[in-house]
Design goal:
The structure is a single chain. This protein is α+β, with helices and mostly antiparallel strands and 169 residues long. It has one domain: Gcn5-related N-acetyltransferase (GNAT) (Aminopeptidase, 3-Layer(aba) Sandwich), CATH 3.40.630.30. Helices cover 33% and strands 31% of the residues. The strands form 2 sheets. It has a 4-stranded antiparallel β-sheet. It has a 3-stranded antiparallel β-sheet with strand order 5-7-6. A hairpin with a 2-residue loop joins strand 2 and strand 3. The longest helix has 15 residues. It is globular, with a radius of gyration of 16 Å. The mean pLDDT is 88.
Length: 169
Amino acid sequence: MDIRALERRDRPQLPGLTARAIRSGCAGSYTRTQIAAWIRSHDADLVLRAEQVVVACAGPDVLGFAGVDTRRLVPLRFVFVDPPHWRRGAGRALVQALEQVCLDKGLAQIAVAAARHAQAFYASMGYEVVHRLQALLPAARSGRPDIGVDVVTMFKPLRPLEVRAQQGR
């Protein structure tokens, strides 16, 4: 598995991967309406708005992707891994790559708005819950109320990788 910057040739794989990851990850934690709204809210523009996007790939296949925007209060914008590749290190490698981007840009901390099912993943990487909130996602039709989904803001102080290695993390 390689971690590299998103390339134009990767883009066609992202919508299907995103939908599969949201459907599989959110099943049992959110309603069908919430899941559908979540998928709609993660369109191609989301990827284009991110400051930097990295992909985990095996040959031409994208296994997962993640984006960061160091200009935002919550810089880690999204992390999606195709369900057949969960628990194989792709998500961890993507997040670590973006943590390094944040360090390189001078950030001392990183935050993410995590879905219920992703809390344990981020906690295993040293993130702590600092705030519970309800994110509002656009309804399927205009004029209808937005759809709320429960998420948590999780925070992690960043240290250079060599410091973490010395501390055994």
